[in-house]
Design a protein that fits this description.
Elements (H helix, E strand, L loop, with lengths): L9 H9 L7 H11 L4 E4 L6 H15 L8 E4 L3 H14 L7 E4 L4 H14 L3 E4 L1 H8 L11 E4 L2 H6 L3 H9 L6 E6 L4 H9 L8
Parallel strand pairs: 1-6, 2-4, 2-5, 3-4, 5-6
Helix pairs in contact: 2-3, 3-4, 6-8
The structure holds adenosine monophosphate.
Adenosine monophosphate (AMP) binds next to α3.
Length: 207
């Protein structure tokens, strides 16, 4: 399936073309349409399948259509700083022709970054990528504003549970509005991932 068949906004298509993507990978073909329709998605996808663009492209497209100034639109929670940096680079490439803002928030990045992270968490960035521990450090300070959040993405969810982040993820979810779209990606689908998905409230109804 070619990317022109998804009805993406022109500025999103430009980013796809600049990244030299021509046809969608199988996971992209499966998850892009339901995400564009506003549905929750749980997908089993390994690294290297194109899973990052599978959630980034429809999330970006929807955020461009429903832009809310001063609010964070999407929160992507990932297990490691390496993955946070990698996704953040993906966002930079794919959103190059849009006005979307983004920031990666992860541990071990020093005091200067903390100030920029706090500003984004208070005043909103369109897309925030974070590791659980660093996000909890900010949440504990009391200034995180997720009121306008439209998307929660849990990427490599099985790895996050293996690394012991279950409680942190639950705390993060409690700080988010209930009405939002949930996207969960995992290389494996053990029972504990299905349990985690059950804890996520039902999908919002959108017109
Ligand atoms: P990921 O599985 O998200 O880590 O992506 C693996 C690699 O595939 C990354 O370098 C992406 O830029 C690239 N990629 C993602 N989607 C496509 C596509 N439709 N066509 C060609 N390359 C892609």
């Amino acid at each position: 399936m070619r990317f022109t068949e998804f009805n993406f906004l022109p500025e999103v298509l430009e980013g796809i073309e600049a990244s030299n993507y021509e046809t969608a990978t199988p996971v992209q073909e499966q998850v892009i349409p339901p995400i564009l329709e506003g549905r929750d998605v749980i997908a089993s996808a390994q690294t290297g399948t194109g899973k990052t663009a599978a959630f980034l492209l429809p999330v970006m497209n929807r955020l461009l259509k429903n832009h809310v100034d001063g609010h964070t639109g999407a929160l992507i929670v990932v297990p490691t700083r390496e993955l946070a940096i990698q996704i953040s680079q993906h966002i930079e490439g794919l959103s190059y022709f849009t006005h979307l803002s983004s920031i990666a928030i992860y541990g071990g990045s020093g005091g200067d970054n903390f100030v920029a992270e706090k500003k984004a968490l208070q005043n909103g960035a369109d897309i925030i990528v974070c590791t659980p521990g660093r996000m909890i450090a900010h949440l504990n300070m009391g200034y995180v504003n997720m009121k306008g959040l439209q998307f929660l993405v849990l990427d490599e969810a099985d790895r996050m549970l293996d690394m012991g982040f279950q409680d942190d993820i639950s705390k993060i979810i409690k700080a988010l509005p209930e009405k939002r779209q949930n996207l969960l990606f995992s290389a494996t689908m053990p029972d504990k991932i299905r349990q985690l998905a059950k804890k996520i409230p039902p999908p919002p109804r959108r017109n």
